[in-house]
Amino acid sequence: MPKLLTILLSGLIFGLAACSSPPPAKAETPPKVAGAAQSAAEQTTDKEALNNAGANNEKRSIKMNTTANQTGKAIVVYYSRTGENYSVGNIKVGNTAKVAMEIAKQSGADLFEIKPVKAYPANYKECIEVARQEKEANARPQIAVAVEHFEQYSTVYLGYPNWWGDLPMIVYTFIESQDFAGKTVIPFVTHEGSGLSGTPQKLRQVLPKATVTEGLAISGSTAQNRPDEVAKKAAELIKQKG
User: Fold this and answer.
1) Which 3 state secondary structure label does DSSP give 133?
2) Which residue of 70, 125, 145, 188 has the fewest CB atoms within a 10 Å radius of its CB?
3) How far is it, in rounded angstroms, from Cα 87 to Cα 46?
4) Per-residue pLDDT in tens (0 to 9) along the chain, 242 residues
């Protein structure tokens, strides 16, 4: 009996390093009203809005970066989750969101949050169960807000938590809704032990006409507690743009 219990607990932790970074990690939610692409300067003033993410479902246009990226050639697209997360407790700004905002700040790229019509549960165990069911069903959760004029971007920084060794299904929804032909896709993943889990290769399979780089993996606990390390990793990721 003790041996069986150990196996079951190990399976739960492995599978779920997801809902926060990977599936078993305590879940993660988006930090800003989905759909609004923001400049690096706007991100600081909108911190409170990020903390209240999840309330607004109206469609919004992308706001072009008004500082360093006038041409709009790069965009940071991410899905992130707040609430109860593995190893970091209850958070108001998601792990992936923190990394995404740092990348946008350093690169001058626009910022767009993938926000679901139906929010994932704030409770960690409930979230990882929903994530598991979606993966098994190869589901495509609906996105609340659409990106406008995606064709103008040549570089896409794509961020997501590692859920059950894969991208969250809602990220596949986004990918399949856009034309990535000719674009450079630079993945970044938050996790609590599962790393990238081969997700760049999965992206290459679903985006055969795009160039997908090696990507970056950063732990959710680092994203929440070590801004200096996040800044360093973000700078490394930006170099993959070439």
Assistant:
1) helix
2) 70
3) 26
4) 444 434 333 443 334 444 554 444 444 433 333 344 554 444 443 444 334 333 333 333 344 443 333 445 899 999 999 999 998 999 999 999 999 999 999 999 999 999 999 999 999 999 999 999 999 999 999 999 999 899 999 999 999 999 999 999 999 999 999 999 999 999 999 999 999 999 999 999 999 999 999 999 999 999 999 999 999 999 999 999 87
Rounded to whole angstroms, the Cα distance separating 191 from 196 reads 8
Residue 203 carries which side chain, given as an amino acid letter?
L
Candidates 216, 119, 208; CA nearest to 160 is: 216
CATH number corresponding to 2-241: 3.40.50.360
Beta-carbon contacts of residue 66 (< 8 Å; ≥ 6 apart): 39, 41
Question: Which pTM does this prediction carry?
Answer: 0.75
Give residue limits of the domains in the chain: 2-241
Tell me the helix, strand and coil percentages in the chain, rounded to 5.
40, 15, 45
The span from the CA of 2 to the CA of 91, in Å, is: 33
The answer to whether 177 touches 206, Cβ cutoff 8 Å, is: no
Please name which of 219, 236, 180 lies closest in space to residue 203, comparing C-alpha atoms: 180
